[in-house]
Amino acid sequence: MDPRFSLNQITTRAWSLPEAVAGCAEAGVEWIGLWRDKVAQIGADEAARLLKEYGVRVSSLCRGGFFTGVTPEGDPVDGVAQTREAIDEAAQLGAEVLVLVVGGISGGDLAGSRQRVADAVGELAPYAGERGVRLGLEPLHPMQCAERSVLSTVDQAVRMAEEHPEETVGVIVDEFHVWWDPRIEESIAAAAGRIAGFHVCDQLVPLPDPLLGRALPGDGPIDHRHLRACVEAAGYTGPIEVEVFNAELWQRPGAEVLAETIRAFETYVT
Questions:
Q1: Distance between CA 201 and CA 215 in Å, rounded?
Q2: Tens digit of pLDDT for each residue in 32-62?
Q3: Angstrom distance (rounded) from CA 216 to CA 94
Q4: What are the tens digits of pLDDT across the range 224-263?
């Protein structure tokens, strides 16, 4: 087992947080990437207690963001206030990284929406730093620009992160969203010192859905070892999360999915 392997909780969505933590411990997995909705089901205090009991560490907490004031469903949201709460929760859970999905276009103004994101990160970065939490800007595939993230490339995320200390604001390199970028090698190299997380999965071909079109490593076109080598050359030595949004996987027992995820990681990523 690669000690850097982390199970992102969304991959085993059928599992509750207690089931996921216990399952990781039983399988010898040292890291887990948590989602706030799963934490909310039992409360942050109980989640922190379980993590300590089972000796499982949190590679990241997902998510904060939506700073442009609207959810993917079109509902209004105070992204700054919710992200402050998420920062506190991350600190309580021992998560050093809070993943940010920054929000889609508001009012048809792309440049203005990106400025709103930059302003929000500037407001929250000192707050996160005081609590020992690093904000991780995650660029998403351009197909998700309108409703989920006005940051579409690693280059964009790095430029925004560079306005703040490295230990406070970094970037998340998620293969599904950035593998296609013809500048990805140069972009990752330019992110040296800024990489706060590395998420791996594959892309289904043909792509059935821009959100759920993910697969386990090895079931698509992505060169995982190449991208891993790139992020490691840029200095990233932290946990590597397998994060798969896939409706078929979500219908299967969590222990079965975790075992298959570990095999895929060891075969195609390690």
A1: 6
A2: 999 999 999 999 999 999 999 999 999 999 9
A3: 27
A4: 999 999 999 999 999 999 999 999 999 999 999 999 999 9
Q: Where are the domains of the chain?
A: 5-268
Angle at 223 between CA 219 and CA 224, to 5 degrees: 85
- How far is 201 from 242, CA to CA, in rounded Å? 6
Rg of the chain (C-alpha set)? 17
Cα 257 to the center of its chain, rounded Å: 19
Is residue 151 a contact partner of residue 139, using CB atoms and an 8 Å limit?
Answer: yes
The torsion region of residue 133 among left (phi > 0), alpha (psi -120 to 50) and beta comes to beta
CB 22 within 8 Å of CB 54: yes
Query: What's the rounded mean pLDDT across residues 146-161?
Result: 98
**pLDDT, average across residues 64-70:** 97
Q: Say how many CA atoms lie within 13 Å of 98 toward its Cβ.
A: 31
pLDDT for 186: 98
The Cα 113–Cα 69 span in angstroms is 9
Are the C-beta atoms of 66 and 80 separated by less than 8 Å? no
Joined together, the tokens standing for residue 159 give: 């430029």
pLDDT of 74: 87
- The pLDDT tens digits for 176-217 are 999 999 999 999 999 999 999 999 999 999 999 889 999 999
**Superfamily for the 5-268 domain:** Divalent-metal-dependent TIM barrel enzymes (3.20.20.150)
H and E: helices and strands count for the chain = 11, 10
What is the separation, in whole angstroms, between the first and last Cα of the chain? 9
